[in-house]
Structure formats: structure tokens, C-alpha cells
Amino acid sequence: MAALAAVRLGCVRYLNARPLIHGWSGHVHFHHPSTLCRQLAAGELDVALVSSFEYLRNPIYSVVDRVAIASDGPVYSVILAHCGPVEQLRKVVVDPASQTSVNLLHCLLGERGMEVEFVSEGDIDAERGLLLIGDQAIRFRQQSRGRHHFLDLGAEWKKATGKPFVYALWLVRPDCEG
Q1: Beta bridge partners of 117
Q2: Distance between CA 44 and CA 69 in Å, rounded?
Q3: Do strands 9-12 and 28-31 pair parallel, antiparallel, or not at all (unpaired)?
Q4: What does the alpha-carbon distance between residue 69 and residue 75 come to, in Å, rounded to a whole number?
Q5: What are phi and psi of 31, to 5 degrees?
Q6: What is the pLDDT of residues 47-98, one digit of tens each?
Q7: In what order do the strands lie in the sheet with 165-172?
């Protein structure tokens, strides 16, 4: 294995990931989840905290066990913001930076029998919701002042399955194991 200082480490920019890199003395490549997935797959990173869906899509990686970003119920920072009843949504504006949250929301709405179009632009209204993750979700909730409703994806997953949900995990490229 490469010397520890030479390991190319990638991590999401979100506040909840900071404890997972505390004490690391080497350089950390900070980026959005989807960018980190691309960089890991391209061999530009050796280890990265990435979408759990990256492992499902490409299970060549090793998983660093017992360290992840996960929730066993409400998470507060992975939300669907909407104006009226969630069942009235026809479109959801998503940030392509989060593959996990988009896929999770697709599953959760499918469980409700909803067919919703995912779009990359638009404003929140009666028929259009907004998927937010991380620090942006927290700020949006705090600034909403009761104007919006929120569907917490962690709470919804727990209600639907009775299980915790893993949003991101540490993956190691196969050529870096040793």
C-alpha cells in the first residue's frame, strides 16, 4: 500500500463529514458526492467518502467497515421541501451532486405509488418540490419560517423498512488494498 501521506483521500464538503477526517494530516480533496464518485472510478483518488449507490453500481471497491454517514430515522439534512401535500407533486428539482438522495427519494415516492419527474431547475410550488441535502438543507429549513413542509428522507426510510439508511461510506480502490 502507498505510504499514508501519499494516499489520495476524497471527502464530501458537508459538516457531518468533518469528524470522519479529523486528525488526518495529509491533503484531502473536498468535492460534491457525484464528483468524488467519478474521481474514485477514474483512479484520481485512492479512498473516498462517496455515495452508497457507487458501491452498488460498481462493487469492485472495499468498504471501510463501521464508518459511514447513516441515520436510523430522522436526519434533518436530507429533505424534500414542498408547499402542499406531497401527493400533489409532479416534479422534484434535484441536485445531481447527490446520487444517493435522488435514488432514495425515487424509491420512497415509488412506495407511495407516485410517478414524479426529476428536473434540474425550477422553483418550489404546489406541484414542484425541492430535494436538498447537507448544509443547504439545514439552511433552507431554518429560513423557511413555516412556508414549506418537509419530508425527512431518513425518517421515511425508517418508517418504510424499519432499517437504518447508509447515505455515504468510505470506499477503497482495489489497487490500493494491501
Answers
A1: 91
A2: 22
A3: parallel
A4: 10
A5: -160, 180
A6: 999 989 889 888 999 999 989 999 999 999 999 999 989 999 999 999 777 7
A7: 28-31, 9-12, 47-51, 165-172, 62-71
Angle at 140 between CA 134 and CA 144, to 5 degrees: 155
Between CA 54 and CA 171 the distance in angstroms is 9
Tell me the one-letter amino acid at 141.
Answer: R
The candidate with the shortest Cα–Cα distance to 127, out of 175, 68, 84, is 84
92 DSSP β-pair partners: 118, 129
Question: Comparing C-alpha atoms, which of 103, 96, 86, 81 is closest to residue 152?
Answer: 81
| Amino acid in the structure at residue 160 | A
Q: Which residues pair with 126 in a beta bridge?
A: none
| Contact residues for 1 (Cβ-Cβ < 8 A; gap 6+) | 176, 177, 178
